[in-house]
Amino acid sequence: MHILVTRPEPDASQLGERLATLGHDVYIEPMIEVSFDTGEEIELDEVQALIATSRNGVRALAQSPALEIACRLPIYAVGPGTAAAARAAGIAQVIAGGSDAAALLPLLAERAEANGGALLHLAGDRLAFDLAGELSDLGFTVLQPMVYRSEAATAFSEELIGCLEQGEIEAVMLMSPRTAQIFGGLMARHDLTHTAERLTFFCLSEAVAHQIARLGGGRVVVAKQPNLQEMLCLVADVAAKSGPSVGN
Predict the structure, then answer these.
(1) In terms of residue numbers, what domain contains 114?
(2) Per-residue pLDDT reduced to its tens digit, 160-208
(3) C-alpha triplet 160, 162, 164: angle, nearest 5°
(4) Residue pair 87/95 in contact by the 8 Å Cβ criterion
């Protein structure tokens, strides 16, 4: 299949390599750009544990002078990808939770101590769930420095516009509701909504599918579980049933 990958870098290139290894043609155009340049300082005095709800939070930590201290603390991580990133950064005690920040809440309530020191959430500038507020209601002290920023794309490249218009892209990988929202908005901005009818949208979750469904048209398929491996299985299943790709 000819697949458009919309993730931010470096995740986009990593996913593209995996898809190419599986025999797909990949076009990469991130819908979000992540920056660590203006992130807030990470202070770990009297912190009992860290919370990472994305790999970008771990990447920010890996660039911070606080990493040495952080490696001696436990970290609660959303999903296998973020947990793997934490281990790669040198953190030995990684506690992997569910697929989103909300799924971490019961795990933290069970294993962390409300009076054992602050929890530090490695947060971005946009939060889909008020984890700090929920934890505060349970009696925890939560620090939430903004350690990275994410800027939405404001236009498609001319090359991508041409690929969509000419039907050279068969499928789009969408890994977050915000990415789906941005992609749908830019499709409308460039008057490309009619091209959606021939696209398959691979969605990480029902929340992602809900956002892209607003575009109208196209085939929307959702991973059984919200993780990258299930997304790759979904692509393989659809590709096997679709037959040879255009141009192959």
Answers:
(1) 40-150
(2) 999 999 999 999 999 999 999 999 999 999 999 999 999 999 999 999 9
(3) 70
(4) no
